[in-house]
Hints:
Elements: E1 11-14, E2 19-21, E3 32-33, E4 48-53, H1 59-69, E5 77-83, E6 88-94, H2 97-100, H3 103-107, E7 113-119, E8 134-138, E9 141-151, H4 154-161, H5 169-180, H6 190-198, E10 204-211, E11 216-220, E12 229-232, E13 238-241, H7 244-249, E14 253-257, E15 263-267, E16 270-274, E17 284-285, H8 287-292, E18 298-299, E19 302-303, H9 304-318, E20 325-328, H10 334-344, E21 352-354, E22 361-362, H11 367-372, E23 378-380, E24 389-394, H12 401-412, E25 417-422, H13 444-447, H14 450-457, E26 461-464, H15 467-473, E27 481-482, H16 484-487
Parallel strand pairs: 17-27, 20-24, 24-25, 25-26
Antiparallel strand pairs: 1-2, 1-6, 3-22, 4-7, 4-13, 5-6, 5-7, 8-9, 9-10, 10-11, 11-15, 12-13, 12-14, 15-16, 18-19, 21-23
Amino acid sequence: MTEWTTESEYVLAFSAAHWTGAAPQPGAPTIAVEVDGTFESTPGEECGVFGVYAPGQDAAHIISFGLFALQHRGQESAGIAASDGQTITVFKDMGLVSQVFNETTLAALPGHLGIGHTRYSTSGSTVWENAQPAYRQVEHTGIALGHNGNLTNTVELATRIGDDASTTDSMLMLDAVAGAIHDGRSDGRQLERALTKVLPLLDGAFSLVVMDQGHLVGVRDPHGYRPLCLGSLPEGGWVLASETAALDLVGAAFVREIEAGEMVVIDAGGVRSQHPFADVDPRLCIFEFVYFARPDSNLYGQNVHGARQRMGRRLATEAPIEADVVVPVPESGIPAAQGFSAESNIPYADGLVKNRYVGRTFIEPTQMLRDRGIRLKLNPIPENLDGKRIVLVDDSIVRGTTTRQLVKMVREAGAVEVHLRISSPPYRWPCYYGMDTSDSSRLLAAQLSVDEIREFLDADSLAYLSLDGLEQAAGGENLGFCNACLSGSYPTPVGEQGDKFVLEKR
């Protein structure tokens, strides 16, 4: 068993029989996350999950590369759990993957099997204790879990299983699985049987990677809100990942997407599939195409970059405008701007430069930098804006504060007109399936009409892509999408949902 800490790194080490954990030490560095809209008015990211079963190979290093590819899905914390067949070791910390892992930390994670996680919190606080993978020990069986999504029956589930300690829905799921494990039958399938019992009790969104000492399991909820795919490694072995781009980075070949409502179990016998849910109704989150997924990933067999370009083309057809140049809001607005330019024959130009070293998570800025607002992330190129009528293309408007500052910045750089074109419909309804937008009072389009939004943003014109146009660009509505945040039509009853800290307030 391994247990060690340094001033800025925290290790949890577990054996098959018992575990100890090292809590953060006093004086350790803290991470500040600005979420008041000054630096973030796009949808809150989700999480990234990654799993490896690779006999004879170093799982931790493979997972670390996979997490780099999934960094965009969560920047609050990162973690890896690895098993050598006997011992599960977990390392997790606050911050980016590059801040959490190095050769020293990876060397402390031996084994051929493991899971990894990058977190953006939609349930529970942004604290070390809520970082994932989460771990539980049940007699001789250890279990680790990584979760992307958000449950909608959290309080009901906690009451049902008698759990008054978990602070996130992910920990609640893990406790339910741990409670369903019985070590009396030592045929190696305890985790599989426990998951089969627990999964039908869960409502909401969950793409999971779960492991014990010898098995890797991947699960998608019966609506498949969050993506998960399967890949094969060239040296032998298997990979599970939130996005296909992560497979590319570790040299794995794409095999297929895990189906909605499917559970795959990977062990020495290979890959086997089960379907523990009675009803399956695919509803992949449409915002995976709009914003979340990397442009080099594929979803529903569609390349995300190509889909975003089609959104821009459709937007140019639905909302034409006379202008001199099409300018994207980097980076997620770039493909749509390219499509808009190609369809409208208005020249494309870069008018805003993104500072790639400012992310969601960063050390506390000074008040002077806070006052500079959006310029922490973006700065104009006046030569491409001065004296021109600009079509400014972005993927979405959520709270509107960043967009308002962008319009002001473009005008100050000399633009004579600013026409906003948004490659998704107005974001009017809260999401309860894994986006951090459960409070409708903070959604601009829930409070104002399109013309009122235009006035608030000080744009010369404003147009959104239609819902039909969005779904057609993403491959057609027959594929099955969740568009509740855009339509108000929820795939499941959501009732009165508590806030993201509901378990912590008990």
